[in-house]
Amino acid sequence: YEQIRLVFPGLVGMSQAVGVAIVVVTGVWLGHHHGGFAWDGSAHQFNVHPLCMVLGMVVLYGDAVLLYRVFPRESKRNLKILHGSIHLLALLVSIIGLVAVFNFHRVSGIPDLYSLHSWCGVLTVTLFLVQWLMGLGFFLFPGASSWLREWYLPLHAFFGLFLLAVSIATCLTGITEKLLFSIMETYSLRAPEGLLANSLALLLLLFGGLVGFIVTREEFRRPPQPEEEALSVHFTSLTPSSP
Amino acid sequence: YEQIRLVFPGLVGMSQAVGVAIVVVTGVWLGHHHGGFAWDGSAHQFNVHPLCMVLGMVVLYGDAVLLYRVFPRESKRNLKILHGSIHLLALLVSIIGLVAVFNFHRVSGIPDLYSLHSWCGVLTVTLFLVQWLMGLGFFLFPGASSWLREWYLPLHAFFGLFLLAVSIATCLTGITEKLLFSIMETYSLRAPEGLLANSLALLLLLFGGLVGFIVTREEFRRPPQPEEEALSVHFTSLTPSSP
């Protein structure tokens, strides 16, 4: 058990390094190979879309999920507020990313919402918004009974990870689309842009794997704080093997 | 608890219906829109690839994962043998799917292994093979100590679901590739083929979600059989909240 506990800081550190690498590689890809970022309806505005989506729907989203494991000594209420706040920031960044691409399409006369990437993206962001509102209603507003919270908690946790997985899959379809639209001819010659964007996708999968692993391992669960024991008698049934 | 237990057959039934729908829709897509299946180095041979991959790496793979929940009264040894056998079948079907596309590429002079889809696909099938061999070594050969089995079981379960997720993400990049290669012009006009293949991708995500949900809910876990209680004293620490 102690051995496994020692692995934890390494895994969290790796997840954060991969998260930073994702944003940097996305920035280099669009900055170096596609001329950088702007908000003028041009292809440079399109570039805002992938950067915002990986930052919002993957890196910030993943970090909000990790919070409960990374700060086990912080009070539950503070963690909930921080979790909800980072997810709100992730949502706002994602919405900027969606506005960037819809606005670029409108200016350029490109049709919306025909591709698999767009279907998955709109579905994911919509379900994320629903999930965020339900989390607010169940866990932060005082109205929900402890029975309801206990019933919803595992559903919230499952759909949270499921949406992260769908979000990363959506990024992979977006990377495939972008490469086939822009370097169809040279992609099969192993153009540097193709190798870079393929590697970005592998980093996204690695980040999802690390976040998923850290939050699903029983031994990394947050032990209940002494002051919470008295408050929720059923809490132990949700954290069955916490020490 | 009883209420949730009643949901179980519905979820399993839905997963199986979605699994059948995935294979049927893939068959209709490639049969109706791409001329069907053959093994002659032509585009009809390429069509064998997607059909084998969704059948092997998603549907059979997912069903092998579900086994432990669907037959809770079957002996553990029989379930392990069936789990390993269905996964072996999934591997063989997937390898046929890989041979189909590599052979088609060779005959047609198309380069291999440059796209994100191919990177993810080769990575997934390779890791699946490693996972299968490790499962065989740890759980079916008598050599592994109960301590080693107990240590490896949650890792096996986590990587099993992670690989299913990566496998489905790989299918989505493959669908995106195939559509952009074959109907780039009409995809944005919402050609029926595009709508059909997009829907196939949503079915794949739904299948992954259902399998993931069924196997991660504590209340669907297989209760230890009476004859196993005496054999493994540590088993309860792996199924902390089983009834």
UniProtKB/TrEMBL annotation, chains A, B:
Domain of life where this protein originates: Eukaryota
List the subcellular locations. Answer: Cytoplasmic vesicle, Secretory vesicle, Chromaffin granule membrane
Provide the membrane topology annotation.
Multi-pass membrane protein
Swiss-Prot/TrEMBL keywords:
Cytoplasmic vesicle, Electron transport, Heme, Iron, Membrane, Metal-binding, Translocase, Transmembrane, Transmembrane helix, Transport
Show the catalytic activity. monodehydro-L-ascorbate radical(out) + L-ascorbate(in) = monodehydro-L-ascorbate radical(in) + L-ascorbate(out)
Q: Which cofactor does it need?
A: heme b
Q: Cross-referenced Pfam families, in alphabetical order?
A: Cytochrom_B561 (PF03188)
GO MF terms on file? Answer: metal ion binding; transmembrane ascorbate ferrireductase activity
Q: Which GO terms describe its cellular component?
A: chromaffin granule membrane; lysosomal membrane
Cytochrome b561 domain span: 14-216
InterPro entries, A to Z: CYB561/CYBRD1-like, Cyt_b561/ferric_Rdtase_TM
Q: Where are the transmembrane segments?
A: 7-28, 48-69, 81-104, 116-141, 153-175, 195-215
Q: What does the UniProt function comment say about this protein?
A: Transmembrane reductase that uses ascorbate as an electron donor in the cytoplasm and transfers electrons across membranes to reduce monodehydro-L-ascorbate radical in the lumen of secretory vesicles. It is therefore involved the regeneration and homeostasis within secretory vesicles of ascorbate which in turn provides reducing equivalents needed to support the activity of intravesicular enzymes.
What's the protein called, per UniProt?
A: Transmembrane ascorbate-dependent reductase CYB561
